[in-house]
Amino acid sequence: MKTCVIYARYSSNNQTEQSIEGQIRVCREYAKRNNLAVAGTYIDRAMTGTNDNREQFQKMLKDSDKKAWDYVLCYKLDRFSRNKYEMAIHRKHLKDNGVKILSAMENIPDSPEGILLESLLEGMNQYYSEELSQKTKRGLRETRIKGNYMGGPINYGYKVVHETTGEQTAAKVAVNEEEAPVLLHIFEAYAAGNRIPDIVRELDDKGVKNRGNPFTVNSIYFILQQEKYTGVYNFNGETFTHIYPAIIPKELFQIVRKRIDKNKTGKHVIGVDYILMGKCYCGYCGRQLRSAAGTTTDGTILRYYRCPYSKKNVNCHNKSVRKEVLEQIVIDALTNEITKPENNALITDNVFALYTAKFTDDSDLHRYEKELSATDKAIKNILTAIEEGIFTPSTKQRLTELEEKKVRLEQAVTVESAKEKNLLTKEDIERYITAAVKLSAKQMIELLVERIDVHVDKICIKLRYSDTPPDITTDPTDKDSLSDNDIKEIEQNTANARPDRKFSCRGFLLFSFTKEHEISRPRTYKSGRTRTFTCSTTFIVEFYI
């Protein structure tokens, strides 16, 4: 039996989940009529088909590399793509993997005439999409020119009212009399020098809510940046002054804007890449480490990773760690320690053991095969009884039920067997680790490190583990230095390799070692005399899986 996956999409919030359900229902009926086993579904909600920047769409293309199914089944071709050029590229990608695209509603024959019809449909889909886009943009611009409300959530301080002129009713923006004084107070308090957290606490103490929810630092910061509160709305290079009534004087807004620009955090961090950011956590309180910096008397900027609560009254006694020290320790540990034969073998064995155990626990193949065997046996028993003359209406009904169940189980076994074809081997895991350490430091850390817990005297590195290691993105200039068998050219970047904030570094300890790091920094005094200071730091580095 051939296998397929279903791809469904709706392109706007005006469409609903029912649109998706309808597409999937039609596709499943098509699959049943054509004896296709459905191996899975990929769904993109409120996504346009004019480009391929769709999460589930990209996942489907990537999964096709496994060659575990034969077709991609869509409700119509426009659900797959309305851009004929991208359509051709992705069709080629799927074709190289032995996968064809099927349309449940468009009867396209597998012949030269079918190719012509398919091209015609793709061109019509793109024309429809571009024409609809132009009409929509023209309509929205006319709405803005008339001063009407565009729809969507309304900003705090405003409300939507409906005005009727003749037979036409238009949505207009008006000032919310209850919220406007609060909004004005927020701007005035910040302009007077109050910090945003202090404003949040003041509003909370007074019981003032943001439409039922407490104000937060982010919500106040968002409010302070909205120029539309002055009555000015900029969109797509055009300025509209008759959509939003002014609540805040322009002079007050300019004072607030200047203070925000002045207080923007981390002007010393611009252009500085904290490659461990998002993966480092305090080993005592569990909070994520942040970037910090200080300036010495001679103007040298020192950068750190710091627990945000280590300087507050919350029982955290962790210390700041110099950026270059922590990053170099982690890089050295990854490039030097895990590539040692004994450590590499230890990591590979344990990752493979976890992987196979999880697959065995999660796999339904054995259960489906067992059910299928029992169903076959039950069918044979009923057939034997019929041959012996035992036949009743309930016997016929039971036989029909078992035969339908057998078809479902056979499809399930086909799907699970396709999954089993893609099991990782120890060699896959070892090759993945070997290839990862040849990449840039940032890419290597993204791929190999799940989490780093930093203590005063110890660094715990939790290695990433997933059912399928992420593809490795390499810079074109780096590919020549890697073995062809080690790294496969990929399309997905590694930006989604983020840690689980609730995950603890506690796990199976693989190995540990002691790392000493020395920093030398010259200091020049006003007299012109220069002295070099040397600081030595020793950490215990532990690797977990």
From TrEMBL:
Q: Where is the Recombinase domain?
A: 155-266
Show the Pfam families listed in the entry. Recombinase, Resolvase, Zn_ribbon_recom
In alphabetical order, the GO MF annotations are: DNA binding; DNA strand exchange activity
CDD domains in alphabetical order = Ser_Recombinase
Q: Which InterPro entries match?
A: DNA_bind_recomb_sf, DNA_bind_recombinase_dom, Resolv_N, Resolvase-like_N_sf, SSR_resolvase, Zn_ribbon_recom_dom
Q: Which Gene3D superfamilies match?
A: Putative Large Serine Recombinase, Chain B, Domain 2 (3.90.1750.20), Resolvase, N-terminal catalytic domain (3.40.50.1390)
Resolvase/invertase-type recombinase catalytic domain: residues covered: 3-147
PANTHER family in the record? DNA RECOMBINASE-RELATED, DNA-INVERTASE FROM LAMBDOID PROPHAGE
> Protein name, please?
Recombinase family protein
**Annotated organism of origin:** Candidatus Coproplasma excrementigallinarum
Organism lineage: Bacteria, Bacillati, Bacillota, Clostridia, Eubacteriales
